[in-house]
Design a protein that fits this description.
three-stranded antiparallel sheet; 827 residues; Annexin V, domain 1; zinc ion binding; 58% helix; repeat; PH_domain; PH-domain like; GTPase activation; single chain; cell membrane; Substrate Binding Domain Of Dnak, Chain:A, Domain 2; mainly alpha; 28 helices
């Protein structure tokens, strides 16, 4: 190791030593300036990059809006959606790059400046102080007179002590200088190497992403070439049609009438004739509006044996004559206006004016022909009776709540590492892993986590157990799986195929090949045996004898009544909902609810809007019983579960296995289904096109919902009744799930087949917690839109309230079940 300042010269305190110190001190000062400048430039680069990502995200949202606008054009919508998704992935990669840049450059170099260089400065101050004291002792020792023995001894002692202190501090100072000179190389190069690796991963991910998109872009380019050819052909056809119409218009101009006089009694659309006519007012004055002729000029048509008119295309037609068989038509020559005719029915008459004599004759003939045709086609019309499907009988929901496994007050690292197998890296076995894959539920060392990042977020989402913040539902998800569970799935055939698992000291290339084979290619996953089609997949619903007896003995049992329900469960539900509405929506209850969260003045204004809940609840109380009994929204949600609960999951297809395991709250089976290739948004056609996420809502597990969302589940997919996961969670009163879906971007404005959105459902169900969450989310959304904060989380108080609800849903769910508990305790 090269020594910057020699220790021997330090003891001598020679001019060479002082010159070396001066050179080193100047070098350290300049190094500090350079590092401070580099850190400031890094901060500016990160801020600029985040601003770029924000602008890029707004641009991507614009592309998505254009895609939604082009929903009638499948090619444009599909292409723009794919491109916007790709851009979103690139934005995510950019954010990861900026985070790693902040850790590698800003954090590391700032630490070096604030700690190591600061220690050097402190040592320098001590050295300068003791050096000055030594000089003073030398001068005093030289000035003392020899005949003053007492002063001689005192000066000698002071000089000896000062020299001893000087040597000690000087040696420490030289040691600090040499350590700093040695460490500066490693710190600078380590931070820059980490920065370059971050760029390598960024460009590698971007290359892989666009490589997957490349074939689609190539096909799209070929389609665009064909579209250009088709457009040229259509242009020629339209030019030819334009020429034909222009010639026809010239003939009409020559004849002096530009009116189309054709009518067709047998028209396919039922419209015999249509066109503009002036209509005289039907009031007592019988006047024509000369100042505003557009007020009396209407688009008339003869259709379905009626004469109707409308001002605009979107307006509902106004019926002039309901049955042409009961009317007559005649010329009107006794008024001042030309080209008028009158349609007379038994109850009223209508004076109309055409634009020319030929057009008047055409309209009169069209009406007369329609009258004659109506008489010939007179006959009885049979009404079609619509068959209404009978409501399905209810069945009892089965399932048990997952036991609480987490201890409060522990850090994320402590909680996760307590799970079996999590004390070592899932892929290489290195002890004390500090990183995790949140969608897989495993812990990783720092090197394996970097490899997981390169796979892409659709395979693995990496997060630090010590540096990142953890939401409570995500932490519970990590504690429900673990390395042992996932390795039993993804390494089931490891010994059969003869592949050796990497060790902590293995090369990075070896680990990278193994991880890719394990999670991307899934070479070690035990293939699912091919089984016969299950009764559910074939459309046949089979119940075990015990459930069959329950279904026939208690067909009216519903979710609202629960397992403790007695006779007339619907009446009990009505009574409990009415009592709950009276207790929940009084002003005192709302005040206590909002004072619990200590909201700011910005959000406290919701009190005034929530005070209207009392009035709306009172108005709808008298209609609640009929609404609950007639509307299937409150009863059959859990009635169709019997077909997906009683089969061996190993004999089901991956999608159906995921669907069943989501309801049963079985995360290992869900992870196994995904490993076997299950589509996370699989749709069960036999059960109203419900998805696994909707099944997880019905099962009542917050962690199951979080697992599906982390693995790419769409929170806005709805079933055949128009209800998404947010609808179902609101109906079932699962407050924690409602909070989770709102945080994950659920559309609370969507309505079901009955025209109800989640907020109206929560108000009818008298659930104050869910009403509060929905209204806060809606108000926060309006605030962000009004202030132009697109892509931002919104008000801090809003975030605090949702954070409190998440903590209660994950750690104290009994607090959110207080309304259900109070109902179950009633006689």
């Amino acid at each position: 190791m090269r020594v910057a300042v020699d220790f021997e010269e330090c003891l001598k305190d020679s001019p060479r030593f002082r010159a070396a110190l001066e050179e080193v001190e100047g070098d350290v000062t300049e190094l500090e300036l350079k590092l401070d400048k580099l850190v400031k430039l890094c901060i500016a680069m990160i801020d600029t990059g985040k601003a770029f990502c924000t602008a890029n995200k707004q641009f991507m949202n614009g592309i998505r809006d254009l895609a939604q606008y082009s929903c009638k054009d499948a090619l444009v919508e599909t292409s723009l959606t794919k491109f916007s998704d790709t851009l979103q992935e690139m934005i995510n990669y950019h954010n990861i790059l900026f985070d790693q840049t902040q850790r590698s450059i800003k954090a590391q170099l700032q630490t070096f400046v604030k700690e190591d260089i600061k220690k050097f400065k402190d040592a320098k101050k001590q050295f300068e102080k003791v050096s000055e004291e030594k000089e003073n002792a030398l001068v005093k020792n030289a000035q003392v007179q020899r005949n003053k023995q007492h002063e001689v001894e005192e000066a000698t002692n002071i000089l000896t002590a000062t020299r001893k202190c000087f040597r000690h501090i000087a040696l420490d100072y030289v040691l600090q200088i040499n350590v700093l000179q040695s460490k500066r190389r490693s710190e600078i190069l380590k931070s820059m190497l980490s920065f370059m690796y971050a760029h390598l991963a960024f460009f590698h991910q971007g290359y892989d992403l666009f490589s997957e998109l490349g074939p689609y872009m190539k096909d799209l380019g070929a389609q665009l070439d064909q579209l250009a050819v088709d457009a040229a052909k259509e242009k020629r056809d339209m030019e030819q049609k334009h020429s034909t119409i222009q010639q026809k218009a010239a003939l009409q101009d020559y004849s002096g009438d530009d009116t189309k006089l054709e009518y067709n009694v047998d028209a396919a659309n039922g419209i015999v004739m249509e066109g503009y006519l002036f209509k005289r007012a039907s009031n007592a004055f019988k006047t024509w509006n000369r100042k505003k002729p557009d007020h009396i000029r209407r688009w008339f048509s003869i259709q379905n044996n009626q004469l109707v008119y409308q001002k605009k295309f979107k307006d509902n037609p106004t019926v002039v004559v309901e049955d042409l068989r009961l009317c007559t038509v005649k010329h009107c020559e006794d008024i001042e206006r030309r080209f008028c005719f009158e349609v007379v029915s038994p109850t009223k008459s209508c004076m109309l004016q055409a634009d020319s004599e030929k057009l008047r004759q055409a309209w009169i003939k069209a009406v007369q022909t329609s009258i004659a045709t109506a008489y010939r086609e007179k006959g009885d019309e049979s009404e079609k009776q619509e068959k209404k499907p009978s409501p399905s009988t209810g069945s009892l929901e089965t399932g048990s709540e997952t036991k609480e496994k987490l201890l409060k007050g522990e850090s994320a690292l402590q909680r996760v590492q307590c799970i079996p197998g999590n004390a070592a890296c899932c892929d290489c076995g290195l002890a004390d892993p500090r990183w995790a894959s949140i969608n897989l539920g495993i812990t990783l060392c720092i090197e394996c986590s970097g490899i997981h990042r390169s796979l892409g977020v659709h395979f693995s989402k990496v997060r630090s157990l010590t540096l990142d913040s953890w939401e409570p539902e995500l932490l519970k998800l990590m504690c429900e799986l673990g390395n042992d569970v996932i390795n039993r799935i993804y390494e089931a055939k490891l010994e059969k195929v003869g592949v050796k698992k990497p060790q902590p000291g293995s090369q990075r290339q070896e680990k990278e090949a193994y991880i890719k084979a394990k999670y991307v290619e899934r070479k070690f996953v035990e293939k699912q045996p091919v089984a016969a089609v299950s009764p559910l997949e074939s459309g046949t619903k089979v119940l075990p004898p015990s459930q069959e007896e329950k279904r026939h003995s208690a067909p009216e049992k519903s979710l609202l009544a629960g397992e403790q329900g007695v006779a007339s469960p619907k009446a009990v539900a009505v009574i409990s909902d009415e009592a709950r509405r009276e207790s929940l929506f009084c002003p005192d209850e709302l005040d206590s609810l909002f004072s619990y969260f200590d909201t700011s003045s910005k959000l406290r204004s919701i009190r005034s809007s929530d005070s209207g809940i009392q009035q709306s609840a009172d108005d709808s109380r008298e209609h609640l019983a009929s609404t609950i009994s007639a509307n299937s929204l409150y009863e059959p949600e859990g009635d169709k579960q019997e077909s997906s609960v009683f089969f061996d999951s190993k004999q089901l297809s991956p999608g159906l296995q995921l669907y069943q395991a989501a309801f049963e709250k079985n995360l290992p089976n869900m992870a196994e289904a995904l490993a076997h290739g299950a589509e996370v948004n699989w749709v069960n056609i036999e059960e109203n096109k419900a998805t696994p996420l909707i099944q997880a809502v019905r099962g009542g597990s917050l962690v199951t919902c979080e697992f599906l969302l982390q693995n790419g589940a769409n929170v806005n997919i709805r079933d055949t009744k128009g209800r998404g996961p947010l609808h179902h969670a609101t109906v079932l009163g699962h407050t924690g799930q409602v909070c989770l879906f709102l945080k994950r971007g659920a559309n609370q404005h969507a309505t079901d087949e009955d025209g109800k959105d989640p907020l109206s459902i929560a108000v009818e169900a008298a659930n104050a917690d869910i009403v509060t969450l929905l209204r806060l989310a809606r108000m926060n959304e309006e605030m962000r839109e009004s202030e132009g904060l697109y892509g931002q989380p919104g008000d801090e108080i809003y975030q605090d309230i949702f954070r409190d609800f998440s903590q209660m849903a994950s750690n104290n769910p009994e607090k959110l079940n207080r309304f259900q508990q109070s109902d179950s305790q009633k006689p």
